[in-house]
Amino acid sequence: MGVNWVVSEMSHLFGPVPSRRLGRSLGVDLVPRKTCPFNCIYCEVGPTTHSTLERFHHQGGAILQELEEYLAGPGVGLDYITLAGSGEPTLNRDLGVIIRRLKSLTATPVAVLTNGALLQDREVRRELAAADVVLPSLDAAREETFQAINRPLPGLGLEGLVHGLAAFRQEYRGQIWLEVLLLKGLNDGEAELTALHRLLAKLAPDKVQLNTSVRPGVENWSRPLTRQEMAAAAARLGPRVEVIASSNGGTMTSATFTDADFVEMLSRRPMTAADLAQALGLPLPEVEERLRRLRAEGRISCDLYGEKEFYRHQSRAVF
């Protein structure tokens, strides 16, 4: 049975969006764009504009109000509510309150996407304890590679990141799905994969999900691996490693979408015409025609990446 797509008009919620990892996911943006201790070369959100490790309160009451209003409405079938968005969500000191309130409002599992930089903080680990799934990232097992890809704040090193991940693994009773994003010529060589294999065995996440850069990122020289290269790397990293596949959340349907709906979706992350057609449950020719018009009006732009055309809001994508 199909479900209706709802494009949220709330400032802190977005989606539901079709996620390769989490199915139909309602996104919750917890920090101002783009606030993060990393400036990863592959980030589709764009370059970091506020780099910090200092936690702060940000719109906790407003975020909870939007969630309560959304969950009290007719809604759609959700697989997850995902705390993520346009920066590092664990920077928000209201994180724990929001997770606990969500658990009291809905049976939908709560997931948190994080780069893991703040897992060294015991308080952050305690706040995450109530989440059902935490999805941290780890793109390198060697310091120089970590610095080259993730470009963290000065003084933030791989050793501290790994320490935080290991401590969280010991304390957390939920699922940890660790994402490793591989880039051609940077962390896909034999020495890099050997070091990653050893480190992953020590960290023992419930899943290791292998990804590559499939959308335009901060640096256009960050290049993706082919499907065959990804499969070979997964085999090299161990039996619990899976290559993240395309979303299998199914086609969602809706009767009417405004131009503003299209622009809102493209403000969250770059998407191809096929991505939008699948997500919105609309015929591809109809989506392509709408995109051509919005581009001619200057409301969206189009970039060629990996021989695919990705559309984005003219100012910049935020997811």
Rg, nearest Å: 19 Å
Number of DSSP E strands: 10
Query: Which regions contain 5 or more consecutive residues with pLDDT less than 50?
Result: 1-9, 245-255
Mean pLDDT, to the nearest integer, reads 85
Q: How much of the polypeptide forms β-strand, as a percent range?
A: 15-25%
Can you put this structure into words, describing what you see?
- The chain is an alpha/beta fold and 319 residues long.
- The protein has 2 domains: 13-253, Aldolase class I (TIM Barrel, Alpha-Beta Barrel), CATH 3.20.20; 269-319, Arc Repressor Mutant, subunit A (Orthogonal Bundle).
- It has 10 helices and 10 strands.
- Strands 1-2-3-4-5-6-7-8 form an 8-stranded mixed beta sheet. The chain has a two-stranded antiparallel ribbon with strand order 9-10.
- Strand 3, helix 2 (95-105) and strand 4 (110-113) form a beta-alpha-beta unit.
- The chain is globular, with a radius of gyration of 19 Å.
- Mean pLDDT is 85; it is low at 1-9 and 245-255.
